Amino acid sequence: MFAILKVQLQQMKRNPATMLLMIVMTVLFTVAMGANAVTSVPVYAFHDPALSADDAEAWLERLNRSETFEFALTPEAEAKERVTEGKAEFALRLLPDDYRIVAAVDDSANLQALAHYVRTVYEEELTIRAAEASSGGASIRGELEERLAAPALRVASSEVATEEDFKYDARVQALFGFALFFSIFTVAYSVNALLEEKKSGVWDRVILSPVSKTSMYIGHLVNSFIAGYAQIAIVFVLFRYVFGFPVGDSFATLLLLIGVYTFAVVALGLLLAGLVQTPQQMAVLIPIVAVSSAMIGGAYWPIEIVTNPALLALAKVIPVTYGMEALKGVAYHGYTWSELLRPVSYLLLIGVACMGVGINLIERRGRG
Asked: Which superkingdom heads the taxonomic lineage of this protein's source (predicted)?
């Protein structure tokens, strides 16, 4: 096994073009997408005639407590014009006890986050008003603020984000998405070398030596794993320590997670190798699988904004889905290993299943 692995690593060292190209592509795409990221999303708000200017300012003050969105009062015509011309994603119409969001598209990640945030602010304020009204005008708000300032009991809690309550950072989304996406190419093309050796007869000649078939498989697959893992790790280190991307406080956990993800992708590559007849067919199939996996698995955009049941069902059998879930869980929410158990388990399950079926198909074709 070690002899085979050594040979494969030497070949990769002599010809690292694929890995270097994928690293460069990941960096370029991530920088291009991340350059458009802003620390806060501007929201142009205008108030209904039924709402006074003072009340509108009061609502704006409450809404601007967010670090994600920056609300600014704008004339109604100007706000709608910005949305129509594509200069703004959305605008917000303030009503006395309600609101309306004006948007050009309804599937934006920022739109989902805005809707959830504004709804939360309005529900909180209206609840306080209702409590004050039912208590005969007592200052519920002042009492609440005093208790929040000096709580009698402090409770530390954590919660798993739901599809309705998720965080979104364009830089993190781009980094994780493109890193996982381009690693599929490196790993799959590395696995394709196994088919090349089988076709050229190298595989049969080596098996006649004391090297076992199991050692051949392990040597090739470990080499593919090292190539994919090293590529993602290099990209993560670069963007964490050079570009300063906010990838969370547990960088070591991210490095362990990409190991699990890479294992699943290696197994997927082996399954593809078992489904095709020639290395040329494999080379054609790799881009199709990589691009479709990235699109369905949430690498290009957050999977939380996808509503199509068929696509969501397909996403459940794609490694990218669980890779993104685990990585974003650590970066956004500081997931512990107990919370990472679900995506990690699915990645391991997909890896074991794909590897078992892939090897079986390759061996069956070899006997045929």
From this structure: Bacteria
User: Is-contact 346 257, C-beta < 8 A?
Assistant: no
Residues in the chain: 368
Domain with CATH 3.40.190 in the chain: 41-149
Strand, coil or helix: what is 317? coil
> How many other CB atoms are there within 10 angstroms of residue 4's CB atom?
19
Predicted structure pTM score: 0.69
Distance of CA 80 to the CA centre of its chain: 32
Contact in structure between 360 and 274 (CB atoms under 8 Å): yes
Tell which phi-psi region holds residue 86, choosing left (phi > 0), alpha (psi between -120 and 50) or beta.
left
What is the side-by-side order of every strand in the sheet holding 99-103?
A: 69-73, 41-47, 90-94, 99-103
Residue type, 123: E
Looking at domain 41-149, its CATH class is: alpha beta
* Per-residue model confidence as pLDDT tens for the chain (368 residues): 566 666 666 667 777 788 889 999 999 999 888 766 555 788 899 998 888 888 889 898 989 887 778 899 999 999 898 888 888 888 999 988 889 998 887 766 678 888 888 999 888 888 888 877 777 655 665 665 565 555 555 554 444 444 445 577 888 999 999 999 999 999 999 888 888 877 766 665 655 566 677 777 888 888 899 999 999 999 999 999 988 888 888 999 999 999 999 999 999 999 999 899 888 999 999 999 999 999 999 998 888 878 889 999 999 999 999 999 999 999 998 899 999 999 999 999 999 999 999 989 888 876 65
CA dihedral (153, 159, 163, 164) in degrees, to 10, reads 0
Selection from 86, 88, 62, 65 nearest residue 74 by Cα? 88
Q: Which secondary structure element, helix H or strand E, spans residue 276, and what is its range?
A: none
Alpha carbon distances (Å) from 214 to 53, 141, 176? 76, 70, 33
Contact (CB, 8 A) for 345 and 312: no
Residue pair 268/350 in contact by the 8 Å Cβ criterion: yes
336: tokens are: 């512990």
